[in-house]
Design brief:
alpha/beta; six-stranded mixed β-sheet; Molybdopterin biosynthesis moeA protein, domain 3; 8 helices; 429 residues; Molybdenum Cofactor Biosythetic Enzyme, Chain A
Amino acid sequence: MKPGLLSFDDALAALLANARTVDGVETLPTVEAAGRVLAAAQRSALDVPPLDNTQMDGYAVRTADFDGAGASGASGGPGASAASGASGVRLRVVQRIAAGQTGAPLTAGTAARIFTGAPIPPGCDAVVMQEQTRVDGDVVEVLHRPAPGEWIRRAGEDIRAGQAILPAGARITPQAAGLAASVGLATLPVVRRVRVACFFTGDELVMPGQPLRPGAIYNSNRFVLIALLRALGCTVTDLGIVPDSLEATRAALRAAAQGNDLIVTSGGMSVGEEDHVRPAVQAEGRLDLWQIAIKPGKPLAYGVVRRADAATAAHFIGLPGNPVSSFVTFLLFVRPFVRRLQGVVDVTPMALPMRADFDWPRPDSRREFLRVRVNAAGGLDLFPNQGSGVLTSTVWADGLLDNPAGHAIARGDVVRFLPFDTLLGGGAS
C-alpha cells in the first residue's frame, strides 16, 4: 500500500463510525412493509401452529386400534407403502374434517377423513395418508401400521408464544412479512425512509436528449446513483447538474442539507481550479478527504453540511467522477452507510469463495475490485478492460472480485466474490 493511503477496512470503519439510525418510526400495514427495516423486535403472541393439525390428506386414526390387529404391509415411518394385496385394519369413517373445521372426538374402531391443515380431532394420535388406504363405502382399510404422531404437526412446533421472531434492524423480506402475518401482526413499526439529496458538478455534463456539444459527456452517474439510492429504499431529492462555480456549489449544498439526512455527489473533489465541491463543503461544514488504497475509486470524501439552524447537519459523501469508480465506491461505502442510517446492524456484504477461470499476473499495489461474471462451469470470467471509465463492465459483470493488494491470481485459484445480487438487491421499497 502506498504511503499516505488509507486501507479499505480503516476507511469503511471511519465512515461507519459517523452513521447513526435516523430518527422517526412509521407504522405500516404488514402487507406494505416488505423491504423496510424493523424499528423494534417482534414477538409472537401465540403458538404456531396454534393447534395440532395434519400434514397430509388422509385419515385420522387411533393407533390403539392397531394393537394386536395384525395389520400387514409395510410398517415403519411416513412414506412407507403397503404391499400389494395386503389386508389391513378396517375402520368406519364417521366424520369429515377440512381445514378450518373442528372434528368430534374419535372413538374406538372409527376414523375421520381429514385434509391437509385440518385440526386433529380429540382421541386421534396419528394420520395415515390416503395412498396407504383402500376405501369401501363408509369403511377405510388401512394398509399401514401408523406410529403415534405420524403426519401430525404439533402445536407450537414452529413458533412458541412469547418467542422473538424478528429482531430490530432486520430488513423485512417477503418471507419475514409472511412470518409476521402468521402470528397475527397486522402492522409493523419501521424506520422512516432515509432522505438523500444528490447533485452532480461539471460544465461538461449534459442530460440524455440534449445535443452533445464538443467536449461534453452525458451524465450517466446521475442515473446510476439515483437508481442505487432508490433501490436501497431512500427518498431521493435530485438537484441535477450544478454549474462549476463555488457559489453555485455552496448554494446547492445549503439546499441539499435542508430536510435531508445525506448528500451524495460525484466528481469535483480534486484540487483544481474547477473543482469546487471540496472548498464548498469546507465552507458550509467540514470535510475529511481520504485517499483510499483501492482500485477503482481511490478518492472518497466524508463530511457534514450545516443546516440553516446551524445546530444540525446533513452527512456528506463525495464520490469519484469516473463512472466505474463512482459505482464501486457507492457499493462499498455508501450502501453500508445508508444501511446503518436505516438501523441495520450487519452491513457486511455476502462474499462467496469461487474459482477464478483466468490469470491476473500483475496485480496492483492497492486492493482491487475486479468486474467478473459467473460462467457455465461455475467459475469466474474476467472482463477484459478493467478501466475506471468502462461502464459496460458493470452491466456485463455479475459482481466484484475482492482481490488483496499485490495478490496475483492464477487460473483455478479460489477467490472472494461479491455478487451484485447482494450489493444491488435486497433494498427497501
